[in-house]
Amino acid sequence: MIDIPPSVLVLGGSGFVGRYLVARLAARGYRVTVLTRRRAAARHLILLPTVDVVEGDPYDPETLARLAVPADAAINLVGILNERGGATFQRAHVELPKLLVAACKAAGVKRLLHMSALGADAAGGTSRYQRSKGEGEAVVRASGLEYTIFRPSIVFGREDRFLNLFAKLSRMFPVLALGASEAKFQPIYVGDVAHCFAHALDDDATIGAEYNLCGPKVYTLRELVRYAGDTSGHPRPVIGLGPAAAKLQALALEILPGSLMTRDNLASMMRDNVCDASFPSVFQLETTALEAVAPSWLGPDALKPQYNVYREHSGR
Predict the structure, then answer these.
(1) Residue 267: pLDDT above 80?
(2) CA gap 294, 231 in Å, rounded
């Protein structure tokens, strides 16, 4: 009798965290189906063994139902930081989990892993982002499925839009003016987040559990911005803005293309994004220090062979 490897349906698999998790699952022998709006956006996954990239609308119930039928588990990584181009927090963080839960139930898929965010709180979140993430968690909790919820702090890695953005701004401007400069974060490495998701699939002890995921060190936003500039070879003074000036800056940046910062982003930073407990021991992981890996992509001479990049993604 031939053993058939387990199959996993991943939403958001072509994104930042998804590329690391899908590669890790493929390396473990899972059959992975990644649903994406644009197959070209997932070209980095297409050549991975046991991975099938399907182009389709993740909000289409029929598409979700069809792809859920052969799956043993589903993973939802979909999330947005800004509302633009028709994308809303309510649709991405609440409606999509509802659709996925319905598809899982119809197909008999019992296991669901869900990406939320540190600070998610349906009632007391300081931003619409946090409140919508909290509402999405409530959908998963009420699903009756064997769920696990993850709440990471800011996730950093080679392709992130956080440290890389600050490094880019440091190259462009002689001085950086910063709202919420004293907001606290406890960034976690993307490979560590992928490890936790992959581990949870194989560990029934994580069923029904919710985990806050943070790295080993707390930083202020000012410290992170300064670190990105220093490491990229463009050290810059960082000027903290007061509340009124910070709101004006966020409004101006919200209007510009790319939405580098929005008023909702600023509101999210009114609450420190840190963990109040040690890293969950169930994952048997020593979390990666920012300073140990970030110079490999932020540094001015940061060139890395593609083979090593693949190894980094797959966890080998």
Answers:
(1) yes
(2) 8
Beta partners for residue 184, in sequence order: 220
> If DSSP codes are grouped into helix, strand and coil, which group holds residue 131?
helix
pLDDT of residue 254: 86
Kind plus residue range of the DSSP H or E element containing 306: helix 306-314
Model-level pTM greater than 0.85?
Answer: yes
Instruction: Kindly report, residue by residue over 89-133, the tens digit of the pLDDT.
Output: 999 999 999 999 999 999 999 999 999 999 999 998 889 999 999
Q: Give dist(CA 166, CA 227) in Å, integer.
A: 9
Residue 55: how many other CB atoms lie within 10 Å: 14
**pLDDT tens digits, one per residue of 155-179:** 999 999 899 999 999 999 999 999 9
Report the length, in residues, of the chain: 316
Q: Where are the domains of the chain?
A: 7-157+187-214+274-288+301-314
Which fold would CATH assign to domain 7-157+187-214+274-288+301-314?
Rossmann fold (3.40.50)
Question: CB of 105 within 8 A of CB of 145?
Answer: yes
13: nearest Cα among 56, 42, 55: 42
Q: How far apart are CA 262 and CA 259, in angstroms?
A: 6
What six digits make up the tokens of 92? 């991405």
